[in-house]
Write a structure and sequence with these properties.
The protein has a single domain, classed as Porin. With about 450 residues, it is mostly beta strands. The chain contains 1 helix and 18 strands. The two termini are about 40 Å apart. Helix content is about 5%, strand content about 50%. The strands form 2 sheets. The chain has a 16-stranded antiparallel β-barrel. The longest helix is centred in the N-terminal third of the chain and has 13 residues.
Length: about 450
C-alpha cells in the first residue's frame, strides 16, 4: 500500500511534469484576502464514505444589452490634440464587468496605447455575449495541493469582422502546508492582491455591471508567486491578514500592461495588509495596499511604477458600503508595448482617484425571486501624462440587480460620465445590462 509520504512526492512529480497547470491561486467569491478553509489540508474520508470527486467544473455565461451615447467613445469631433487617447478617458463608456467599452474608434487620429478592449458596437444598441467562463478546479486527494484554471471566451466585432478571443485569465496551483494555519502559497497566473475591487472581477460575483474608474490600475491578473496569511483574534471578533505577490506586470489590467512575460526581467511587488471585524451585528474590513516595480509596458528596468491605496467595507442590516482610494505614479520609459500593440514611447503618468459605493438588499423574496439589490456608486479620477494637460472626470453609476433561483442574475445599470477639466465635454453616458447564468 502506498504511504502518505510516497503519495505526496508522487503528486509533486506529476504536477512538475504538467507546466500547463501553472501553480497559482483562486480567489473565492466575496472574501477579503482569500480564505483557505476549502483546502486547509488533506483529511482522509470517513471509513465507508464515498470520497468527493477531486475535479470540479463550474462557470458562467454573461449576456448583455448596451447602448452608449454618441459614437460610443469619449473622443470629441474636432479635437486635434495628439495622441488622441491622452486628451480624454477612453475607458469611460464601459459596457460589461470586464470594462470593455462601446468603442475605441479615434476617427483615424494617432493614439499611444492608453486604450481598453472594445465591444465594437459604437453608439448602436446591441446584444452582447460578454463572457463564456469555464473554471476547472482539482484538489489533490493525497496532498494539500489545489490546481485551478479559468478560461474565458469573448466574441467581439472588430475592424476585420467577428472574432472570438480566448483568454486564460487564471492558471495556478496552491499549496497549504499547515492544517492549523491560514497560510497558502500560490504560483502561476492569478488575481491582483491590491485593494478590494478585484474580488468583484467576475460578472457572477459583481453587484453591478461595470467596474470603477480606477479598476484598470488594480484588478489585473499576472504571472508570479503569491503568499497569503491570516491570523484570527477571537477575543476581539477580528482578524489580520497579509497578501503579497511578485509578478510580471503588477496590478494593471492586461490592456495596459502585458502579464504573460516580463519585458524588463524585474518582478513587480505588490501587497495588502488587512483588518477584519466580524461581529454579529456588523462586519467591517479595512486595508492598505501598495505596488512597486518596473513598468511592464516597456523594456527598461529603470522605468519604475508605484501605486498606493486604502480601502474599506462595512455591512450592516442589509446595507453594504465600500470605498477605495488609489494613487499611481509611472516614470517615463522606452518604446511602449501593450496587449493592443506597439507605440513610440511609454510616457510618464500620474493618477489620483477613487470611488464610494452603497448597496441595499431589500428584505424580502417571492418565489423564484430570491433578492433585489439597489446600488449607487460615485467615482472620480484625476490623471495626466508627462507634458500634457491634466484631465479630471467623474461618474455617477446607479442600478438594480435581481437574484433569480440559485443561478441567474439580471442587472440593469446607467453610467453618467462627466468631463470636469482638461477634456472636452461629450455625450458618452451608457445604459447597460447583464444576464448571468452560473453553472
Amino acid at each position: 500500500m502506498m504511504t502518505k509520504q510516497r503519495a505526496w512526492w508522487l503528486a509533486i512529480a506529476v504536477l512538475a511534469q504538467r507546466p500547463a497547470l501553472a501553480l497559482a491561486q483562486v480567489q473565492p467569491a466575496g472574501e477579503v484576502g482569500e480564505p483557505i478553509n476549502d483546502s486547509a489540508g488533506y483529511t482522509p474520508p470517513a471509513e465507508g464514505a464515498a470520497a468527493p470527486s477531486p475535479l470540479t467544473i463550474n462557470g458562467y455565461v454573461d449576456l448583455g444589452f448596451a447602448k452608449a451615447q454618441g459614437n460610443g467613445t469619449s473622443f470629441a469631433p474636432g479635437d486635434q490634440r495628439l495622441p488622441a487617447d491622452y486628451g480624454v478617458d477612453p475607458f469611460a463608456t464601459a459596457v460589461n464587468s470586464r470594462g470593455d467599452v462601446a468603442s475605441t474608434d479615434a476617427g483615424g487620429r494617432f493614439v499611444n496605447g492608453f486604450l481598453p478592449r472594445s465591444a465594437g458596437i459604437g453608439g448602436n444598441a446591441s446584444f452582447l455575449l460578454n463572457t463564456l467562463d469555464v473554471d476547472f478546479k482539482y484538489a489533490a486527494p493525497v496532498a494539500p495541493l489545489m490546481v485551478f484554471s479559468r478560461v474565458q471566451l469573448m466574441p467581439r466585432f472588430t475592424g476585420t469582422g467577428d472574432d472570438t478571443r480566448v483568454l486564460v485569465e487564471q492558471a495556478f496551483g496552491r499549496y497549504v502546508p499547515f492544517e492549523s494555519l491560514e497560510l497558502a502559497l500560490s504560483v502561476g497566473k492569478f488575481d491582483s492582491v491590491f485593494g478590494i475591487e478585484y474580488l468583484d472581477n467576475e460578472a457572477n460575483i459583481r453587484t453591478g455591471v461595470t467596474p470603477s474608474l480606477v479598476a484598470r490600475y488594480t484588478t489585473g491578473q499576472s504571472i508570479g508567486a503569491k503568499l497569503f496569511y491570516r491570523v484570527q483574534l477571537p477575543a476581539l471578533w477580528s482578524a489580520l491578514s497579509l497578501n503579497v505577490a511578485a509578478t510580471n506586470s503588477g496590478t494593471f489590467v492586461e490592456a495596459l500592461q502585458p502579464p504573460d512575460a516580463s519585458l524588463t526581467g524585474a518582478p513587480v511587488g505588490s501587497g495588502r495588509l488587512g483588518y477584519e471585524l466580524n461581529a454579529a451585528a456588523v462586519q467591517a474590513k479595512l486595508g492598505a495596499s501598495m505596488m512597486v516595480g518596473a513598468r511592464n509596458d516597456q523594456d527598461q528596468p529603470g522605468a519604475h511604477q508605484q501605486a498606493f491605496g486604502v480601502d474599506g467595507r462595512l455591512a450592516f442590516r442589509g446595507v453594504y458600503l465600500s470605498a477605495e482610494y488609489v494613487r499611481v505614479d509611472e516614470g517615463e520609459g522606452g518604446p511602449k508595448t501593450t496587449s493592443l500593440g506597439s507605440f513610440p514611447v511609454a510616457s510618464g503618468f500620474w493618477m489620483r482617484g477613487g470611488y464610494a459605493q452603497v448597496a441595499y438588499a431589500l428584505p424580502w423574496s417571492v418565489g423564484f425571486l430570491h433578492k433585489v439589490t439597489v446600488y449607487g456608486r460615485y467615482g472620480r479620477r484625476h490623471a495626466w501624462f508627462q507634458g500634457f494637460t491634466p484631465i479630471t472626470v467623474d461618474r455617477f453609476t446607479g442600478g438594480v440587480r435581481f437574484d433569480l433561483w440559485e443561478s441567474v442574475l439580471v442587472k440593469a445599470e446607467y453610467l453618467a460620465n462627466r468631463e470636469l477639466a482638461g477634456a472636452p465635454a461629450v455625450a458618452n453616458n451608457v445604459f447597460t445590462s447583464s444576464l448571468v447564468y452560473s453553472f
